[in-house]
Design goal:
It is a single chain. The chain contains 17 helices and eight strands. By secondary structure, it is an alpha+beta fold. It folds into two domains: 152 residues, no CATH class; 168 residues, no CATH class. The strands form three sheets. It has a four-stranded mixed sheet, with no helix packed on it. A two-stranded antiparallel ribbon has the order 1-4. A two-stranded antiparallel sheet has the order 7-8. Strand 7 and strand 8 form a beta hairpin. The longest helix is centred in the last third of the chain and has 27 residues. The termini are far apart.
């Protein structure tokens, strides 16, 4: 492959004290400083590039919407402005972005195709790229060679400018760090754009059934109150916690199963409760229903112990530790739900930040350490999705756990859990 001369303006920038917000802008800045434009294109081809779109158009048809073009202040020509994730502004209701790959951008054509695209306008890593027919420019050829973009999965990424690294907000954001590492997103981005306005709305619609602000608020509150997961999971784990307190830590699995059966039978016998409205009586449950519940909980106990054995083998749980609660599964998702709602413009930055802080505070009350929190999150995720296959639902989180417990810049190593 041959390459022509670098584009106009592509040379070492004037010296400055600029701190790149993320690893991506640093790589672009360093390539520009060296004049290594091939490396610059290569970075662009592997990441999400964001561009402004009309919120009204996206809301009208999420599958068909156009970009917004801007006038170049120097030439008055139309240009397409593209941003890497560290350069996006704080979310506003009237300003939204979509994302695309460099390859897709190279092939995009419309009646209003501009003569150039500009990367991160106004920053020291800015670069104007000429537009032409597909494959006719050096940068578009690099995009074709790289092929599959978005290779930043399973990486710890942070905002070094504009994102909290310590304090209550950072701690709450770190509760969602397992998913952030798995997806290669910025763990401490409070001003969340995620995968763009259209994709954040799609995520909430398809995975959560959320299409309105009120639904987002309801789901967020259920997660923060740890009411979104199965109460049966917490029932089983709560029994073991009680046994561990009584017997000094070790709990025999068969005795755990036996006690679960006893408690369920006692609960099924009916009871008399004195409340504000007087005496209320509950009828006994049918024996067949009680037997089915007992068998279900005993199977669940077996699943829990097998997941814990795998987590001990993989270093997620210490040899003498067990999962005390799966509330982390709800609280970790609450940390993310707050940001997903912001990206979808169902909530404000202030609302999202308050929810994130609450998630961090409640996590610190339920667990002793980031490692314990992680084990609770992973168990909850696996009980919900994995069906004891130990597939991606488990292995992705195991990989993210190892990264967060080992890399020097990890929030789990730098932010006190309590």
């Amino acid at each position: 492959m041959s390459f022509g001369p670098p584009p106009a303006g592509f040379g070492p920038p004037a010296p400055s004290a600029w701190t790149p917000p993320t690893d991506i802008e640093r790589a672009l800045f360093e390539a520009k400083m060296r004049g290594d434009w091939l490396a610059y294109y290569d970075v662009l081809a592997r990441v999400r590039l964001y561009y402004e779109v009309s919120r009204e158009d996206v809301d009208a048809d999420p599958e068909r919407f156009g970009r917004i073009l801007f006038r170049d202040p120097r030439t008055s020509a139309w240009r397409w402005e593209l941003f890497t994730d560290g350069m996006l502004p704080e979310p506003r209701p009237d300003q939204v972005y979509a994302h695309a790959s460099l390859s897709w951008i190279a092939h995009y054509r419309s009646e209003r195709s501009p003569s150039s695209v500009v990367i991160n306008p106004g920053s020291p890593c800015e670069l104007d790229l000429p537009c032409g027919p597909p494959g006719s420019t050096e940068w578009s050829r690099v995009a074709e060679r790289v092929g599959a973009p978005f290779v930043y999965r399973k990486r710890l990424r942070a905002l070094h400018v504009g994102g909290p690294l310590h304090g209550p907000v950072a701690r709450g954001l770190a509760c969602g760090a397992l998913l952030c590492v798995n997806n290669g997103s910025l763990w401490n981005a409070m001003a969340w754009h995620g995968t763009g306005y259209d994709q954040e709305r799609k995520r909430l619609r398809e995975w959560w059934g959320i299409s309105r602000r009120e639904q987002w608020q309801q789901h967020l509150r259920a997660l923060l109150d740890c009411e979104a997961s199965s109460s049966v999971w917490e029932f089983a784990l709560g029994l073991r916690r009680a046994l561990a307190r009584d017997f000094g830590g070790h709990v025999d699995v068969e005795y755990w199963r036996h006690l679960a059966a006893q408690v369920l039978r006692a609960n099924a016998a009916g009871s008399t409760v004195l409340g504000a409205d007087g005496v209320t009586k509950t009828d006994p449950r049918p024996e067949s229903e009680t037997t089915a519940r007992i068998e279900g909980v005993q199977r669940l106990i077996g699943r829990i112990t097998r997941y814990e054995a795998r987590m001990r083998a993989d270093g997620i749980l210490a040899e003498n530790r067990y999962v005390t609660s799966v509330e982390a599964w709800d609280l970790g998702r609450a940390s993310k739900m707050a940001r997903w709602g912001l990206g979808a413009r169902f909530g404000t930055v202030r609302e999202a930040e308050a929810a994130v802080v609450e998630a961090g505070r409640k996590a610190s009350l339920s667990y002793r350490s980031w490692q314990d929190f992680s084990a609770g999150y992973i168990l909850g995720r696996c009980l919900h999705f994995d069906e004891e296959e130990f597939g991606d639902w488990y292995t992705d989180m195991a990989d993210a756990h190892r990264i967060l417990m080992s890399e020097p810049g990890s929030p789990w190593l730098n932010i006190p859990f309590r």
